[in-house]
Each structure stands twice: as C-alpha cells, then as structure tokens.
Amino acid sequence: MSAELRPLVIVLHGPSGVGKDTVIARLRERTGIHRATSSNSRLKREGEVDGVDYHFLTPEEFRRKIEANEFIEHAQVYDDLKGLERRELEGPLAEGRDVLVRTDLQGARSLRGLLRGAVFVLLTAESREALRARLTARETETAETLARRLAEVDEELADAPNNDYVVVNREGALEEAVDELVDIIERERGNPNREAAGVR
Fold first, then answer.
1. Which one of 134, 149, 170, 194 is the catalytic residue?
2. Max alpha carbon distance in the chain (Å)?
3. Which entry of 76, 106, 157, 165 is 20 to 30 Å from 3 by CA?
4. pTM value?
C-alpha cells in the first residue's frame, strides 16, 4: 500500500546571488507549486506586478490586516511593513496544493516556530568564492554591499544544520538543483513521519 500523499510547505532561503528566483521559476514550471506571495506596505516599483512580486498594501490596510490576525508573521523593515498572509498558505493547502515560501534567514528563523510540518531548505552555491564571483559579475554591488552580502553568506551557511535539506545550485547546473528539489517534494509528500503542513 502506498503512503498517503499530503500537501507540503517548502520554506526556501539562501544568500544573495545564489539564484533563488531562477530556481523557483524553473521549479514552478515543472511542478506547478504555488509560490506564496508576501505583502508589503511600500509603493510598487517600476516593473513590479501586484500579486506577483508582492501584494502591495497601504500602511493602513496592512495594519487592519494585522489587527484582524490575517498574517502568519510580519515585521517592520526600515520604513516598510512586510509579512506573509495566512491565505497564501491555508488556501492552497486546503486544495491539496504544495506551497513554496521564499524568504531570508530572518524569515526562516521566524517561520520555524510558526509553521508545522514545513520542510526547510537552504539553497547555496558550491563555495563562498563562487558566490563572490556571481555577486561581482552582477555589477550591481559596491564594495560595501558586497562585503555585507558575503557576511550574510557566512550567517546563512552557519544556519545549515537547522534545515531539513541543503541544495547546492552549481554554476551552469540549474536542472540538477531543480531535480533535487523535485525529489525532496516527492519524498516529503509521502513521508508518514512529517506532521501535516499548516499554521500553528
């Protein structure tokens, strides 16, 4: 008898320059996984799409949703409010769909205490040097921001033992990283020891 397949929440985080968005786009093409869209109180930037990049809310709308307990987690980051609404997880899970949450290290730490049955994945490069090369090649980093992002790399890597899986996105080997994530999803959907995914 086959194991019961249950919808899954994957929380994916990793340092800047590791290719999170590229990996997620390819994973969604292959699996149809729902990407949870965060909410933000800042103004939409050129090229951003409401409901795709973020749900753009006014500060007043955001605060109303906080008061109505509509967020799983939220925080003030500089002058903006950011958060993840319950509906982004609870709706797709109720339909039996897998959900992917893309976050940063701070978000992953927070979500570990707020989600049950979630699978945490650290996406990283083959080495710190490879990550430095990718960040430098983008030509968008000053010496100061490059140093800060590399310090974040060390913090992300130190967090590796707190994750269920570590996936390496090697330069030129996108499909290998996506294959590994597809395998993780299939394995964890049928894992009888994993608690049913949801919000605590």
1. 149
2. 57
3. 165
4. 0.86
